[in-house]
Amino acid sequence: MKSLPNILTSLRLVLALFMFLALAAAAGAIPYVSERLDPLAQFSLQRWAVYAFVVAAVTDFFDGWLARKMNAVSIWGAILDPIGDKVLVCGAILGLLAMGGAQPMIVLPAGLILFREFTVSALREVGAGKGVKLPVTLLAKWKTTLQLVALTMELVVAAWGAFSLPEAAGVRGGFATAAHVLFWLAAIVTLITGAQYWEQTRKALTTS
Length: 208
Description:
Blueprint: H1 4-26, H2 39-69, H3 75-98, H4 104-129, H5 138-158, H6 169-207
Helix pairs in contact: 1-2, 1-3, 2-3, 2-5, 3-4, 3-5, 4-6, 5-6
């Protein structure tokens, strides 16, 4: 049973891959597959991709909680967990852009989030080589939650027709506005945590 947290983390990686491939296929980005999909199949892939993202996002909470509850915290889990988070977030962003999210309200915050995630990963790698550890901060945990909630909403907006949601401008427009605002908030918090990690690394390398 102590392997359950790592199983959930691994499941998150699998779901993230499925989600991205499903969104890419529905968007017409996979040769020989996308061209054989009719509109109903595309809508089905979009729905299942959103479902997969939501399930994967939920595992992000439970794997860490179970690891602490079951006293099953491991080095392997500590390595897999942040990788799973980044793969899920980056996969959702790329899938969202593939679905036609190439608009200023999405592209700019998406690019900033991707830039931060890759930069922090590089900082961790450089720091690890010099014995510098970057512990996850409370704000960084909130950052991940904001990203996952905002991306869920953005994916629903992009796949609106797949869920047969009301097409009234007030309903769809209001939900889209809320999603964009939350996505921008997530991007801002993401950049703040990135700056914090950068400063931590700079100080640690300067004093070492």
